[in-house]
Amino acid sequence: MRVSTSILALLTLSTVAGCGKDPLESCPDVGRAFIETSVRTYFDRTYPAIGGTSVNVLSDEHYDATAKMWTVSANTPEKDYFALISCDGHVELSRKKLGPSEAPKS
Q1: Which contiguous run of DSSP H or E holds residue 11?
Q2: How much is the pLDDT for 68?
Q3: What does the angle CA 15 – CA 21 – CA 25 come to, to the nearest 5 degrees?
Q4: Distance from CA of residue 75 to its chain's centroid?
Q5: For the segment 13-22, what is each residue's pLDDT rounded down to a tens digit?
Q6: In 3-state terms, the chain is what percent helix, strand and coil (to 5)?
């Protein structure tokens, strides 16, 4: 009984401790250097063969105030990407072009 009461108390405290905090901070004024550094660092860590220096970060960045994320195009010699950048510098990539589609097989 004592153990279950302690566990319940810990769960309640952890739930209450997070109340009222904004889980995503806003960062509309981070600047171009933050965006480029975030994308290049991501490529250096995730795709070392490509490396951040060969990435062309375009100047089409846009801040989405609702999602609290930046978006920008980032092109490599082989592929074009669309990058989502959070306010803490985390990057998620998506391919811009999936390539030619095949005709359906009949």
Answers
A1: helix 2-17
A2: 95
A3: 140
A4: 16
A5: 444 445 555 5
A6: 30, 25, 45
Model-level pTM? 0.69
pLDDT at res. 43: 94
What is the sign, positive or negative, of the torsion defined by CA atoms of 13, 88, 71, 46? Answer: negative
**Percent of the chain surpassing pLDDT 70:** 68
Length of the chain, please? Answer: 106
- Bridge partners of 56, per DSSP, are 75
Report the half-sphere exposure of 31 (CA within 13 A, side-chain side). 3
Residue 23: the pLDDT is: 62
The secondary structure of residue 24, as a DSSP letter, is S
